[in-house]
Write a structure and sequence with these properties.
Length: 320
Amino acid sequence: MRRSWTNRRRKLRRKLAACAIGGSVALSSAACYAANAFDSASDPVYADGWQAGDNGGFGFTPWNFDAGYIFGGVNYTYARAGFKKIDDGLQSGTQFSNPFNSIGRAWTIGANPVTGNKNVDDDGAPHVGRGFSPLQIGETLKIKFDNPTKRQFFKGYFIRVNGGSGGANGNICNLGYSCSFPAGSAVPKTSLTTFEYFTNGQWSINDSVSNSTGVFDTDTSAAGALFQVKRTGADTYDVLLDSFGSGADFSASRTFANAGAPIDWVEFVFFNSPSDTGSPPLTATDLYISSIEVVGVPEPGVAGALLLGAVGMARRRRLK
């Protein structure tokens, strides 16, 4: 019993840590949310780099790098699908301390330069993803990212939210097929996409329909951005694309694709210009993600602990 209570206290402290309280901030369930899942590239798990199977933070399944394509019922898995690295966020002027990364230490995805050596060159686009407990009504998935501005015709990259994966094999390759064998059952729910086809770097939202956002890659790359999906109903959600700098933003109420499939996987796909490996790099070519999290309204135990903390602070102020 004592061990069980200790574990509960540890979990409570972890949730409280995700919800800071200022000395003069009134307690409000609308103003403070507990993190149900969180990970960042600053987690010690990534001190030795970023590999498939790594699982930092809490509330997510391990990272999955499965990528490839399916043709004639056969899975052709990519052996060299781009690179997945850690950028140190210091902007010191190298490929992985990149001056174009504005969001700090980050998971980095990109395409290797073409050398003409089939044993070295990329053989396809990277797909990088992981699962989480199905998103509940009122919960929000948040992704902080910084994107490239180098454009290449008929190329692009996107952040995709999938469903029905059960937390495994959730990356989706061509024609809606799972990238993994044994095949998963994941389906796309919504995605933030930029694909260069006379679009000039404009982002689109793709779910039950596809719409342009009026936000461009230059808006979101200036200082990074937040992509946020808040589930509001059985098949509805609110989407937010928030540029951290002075660039344009987008928000809307939308309807998920593939009604009924639970939302339980986040995926990053990159098939854009090769990375600028110069020292220093002169163009923004890589995709950076600094953190991902799922937040919701505090559990009763969390809310109670926050209330006690607020009462304690008020008492201490009166005694001074």
